[in-house]
Each structure stands twice: as structure tokens, then as C-alpha cells.
From TrEMBL, chains A, B:
<dbReference type="Pfam" id="PF03195">
    <property type="entry name" value="LOB"/>
</dbReference>
<protein>
    <recommendedName>
        <fullName>LOB domain-containing protein</fullName>
    </recommendedName>
</protein>
<comment type="similarity">
    <text>Belongs to the LOB domain-containing protein family.</text>
</comment>
<feature type="domain" description="LOB">
    <location>
        <begin position="10"/>
        <end position="111"/>
    </location>
</feature>
<dbReference type="InterPro" id="IPR004883">
    <property type="entry name" value="LOB"/>
</dbReference>
Length: 173, 173
């Protein structure tokens, strides 16, 4: 829920940071309450107050809180990791999805193989397994990749290959 | 590989955009070649030239190309989706990881159950399955979540619940 510091005597965190008077129509006030000064400081450092103000004015009022929160998340990620920011998370998650998908395919193949050996006439069991496998094959996985491509995968792969906990001891080559 | 427009007569894309002389020590030139004008335009619109320059000066030269590329990726994502930017991708990928992990757990449980019914004395098979299950249980999944939390999950979940292809027809409640 967006705060509304206009109703209190305190200027919003943005106006306090920028040392300006917080007017009733302040674009920042509903999303940067005075009790969260770091939220605005981070967003300001990474995106700049002017860019954030422009962006908020270009989107619908009911989407502004989500926009501010996603900007704050990106800003915090960039401050923690100046080189990769939250794009590092996308790279790690994409590789995790690929690994889980491969593992699921292999496990389903094992299940089909053992089931067809153990119950040669049980078509109900193999049909059930077939349904489960088809949920994750091809299309939906392709859609998420088409929508969020990582054009610089090789650099991030190298960067994450040695020191990231996600890569430690997973037993894959 | 970073380009180096200093060696040509053309100013880099940043200096051309900012209408300034591209000097030999230009911080932007190696990463914003004149043949990619949109790369700088996007980054400038979202982060601002001054913030990008500051960020590049704060990190090691051998990491600057990766930093510019991740900034360009974030900027493009924010221009395509002004409300969620690339944080939308993180949210979708995180839910995909959770779904795949649940599916893998269920498939492994099926495999263990059918195998123990079909081969009551085959400890080699159940040990093999146990190893596969332990690869993805608990710790590594927890690590990626601890490192990249999504503090505003509920809003994004609502936003993505109806119209995203990732959610279409997956058969889950």
C-alpha cells in the first residue's frame, strides 16, 4: 500500500533527500515515505531523480507503486553487484531452470523406462507419466527464453562459473 | 570484445549522442561504438550518462564491458516494460524454478515408489534415485533465494497471473 506523507507534516524521503519542499502533488511522496530514506537514496543513486520522475509520469497511477518497488529492487541489486546488478540473478536463475528441466527430463525418462519394464501392460501408468513430461516440454520453456533473452550469456557464465554457490558441487560437468 | 572508436575518426555513440568531442580517454568509447547508437540511447534514458560514467569509474577496467552490457540489458527491459523492467523476468524465472523443483520432487517420489514396489530388493536402484533427489533438495535452492529475494512478490504475482504465457495451461491450480 502506498504511503501518503502529504497528510503528515514530514516531507517524503525524496524531497528530504533533495532538500526541497514537499508539495501536495509530489510525484514521489506516495511511494517514498520518510521512514524509508534508503529506498529513495538507492533509486536516486542508480537512476537519478529526474529519470524516476519521468518514468512515473509516463505510467498509470495504479502501476506506480509496482514500478517504484521494481526500481528499488534493481537499484539495490546494482549497489550490491555494480558489474551485473540484477541481471546476474537472471543469468543464475536461467541456468537453474535449464538444469532442473534436464534433471526432470532424465527422471521422467527413468520413470518411463522402469515402469514399462516393471508393468509392461499398464498403459494407465505410462499415460500418467506422459502427461507429466509434456507439461514442461518445449513450448512454455521456449516462451520464457524468447521473452527474456540473455544476450551476453558467455561473460556471465564465465563470471559465475567459479565462485557462485549455485555452481558448487552440483555434480554436473 | 570492447570496441575502440578512439582509433577511428568517428566519435563514440555516447559522445555523438551527447554532442561532445570524443577525447582519447573517453570512458564510454570502448563500450559504446558508433555503430550501436541505441545501446547508449537506452542506457542514457534509464540511468543517465552521469550515473553510468560514475559507475564505470568505480569498477575495474576489465569488468566495465560486462557492466555496460548488463546496464544495456536492464535499460532495454525497462523500456519494454516500464513497470517491472527485468525484475519481471526474475519473478517469472523464480516461479518457474519453484514449479520445476516441485515437479522434480513429485517425479522422484513416483520413481522411488514404483521402484520399491517393482524391485523390493534392488538397493542399487533406490540408492541411485536417492542421489539424484539429493542434488536439488534444500541447500542450493535456498542459497539462490537468499541471494536474490523478491521482496514484492505479491504484486508481481498478481500482475503476471492472468496474461503471461508462462502461466497458460500448465494444469496447476
Amino acid at each position: 500500500m502506498a504511503s501518503s506523507s502529504n497528510y503528515s507534516n514530514s516531507p517524503c524521503a525524496a524531497c528530504k533527500f533533495l532538500r526541497r519542499k514537499c508539495l501536495p502533488d509530489c510525484i514521489f511522496a506516495p511511494y517514498f515515505p520518510p521512514e524509508e530514506p534508503h529506498k529513495f537514496a538507492n533509486v536516486h543513486k542508480i537512476f537519478g531523480a529526474s529519470n524516476v520522475s519521468k518514468l512515473l509520469n509516463e505510467i498509470q497511477p495504479d502501476q506506480r507503486e509496482d514500478a517504484v518497488n521494481s526500481l528499488a529492487y534493481e537499484a539495490e541489486a546494482r549497489l550490491k553487484d555494480p558489474v551485473y546488478g540484477c541481471v546476474g540473478a537472471i543469468s543464475v536463475l536461467q541456468r537453474q531452470v535449464i538444469r532442473l528441466q534436464k534433471e526432470l527430463d532424465a527422471t521422467n525418462a527413468d520413470l518411463m523406462r522402469y515402469a514399462s519394464n516393471a508393468f509392461p501392460g499398464n498403459s494407465g501408468l505410462t499415460n500418467q507419466m506422459g502427461r507429466r513430461m509434456s507439461q514442461y516440454s518445449g513450448s512454455s520453456f521456449g516462451q520464457i527464453y524468447d521473452q527474456y533473452p540473455t544476450p551476453y550469456t558467455s561473460s556471465w557464465d564465465n563470471s559465475f562459473s567459479g565462485d557462485h554457490p549455485d555452481n558448487a558441487g552440483d555434480g554436473n560437468p
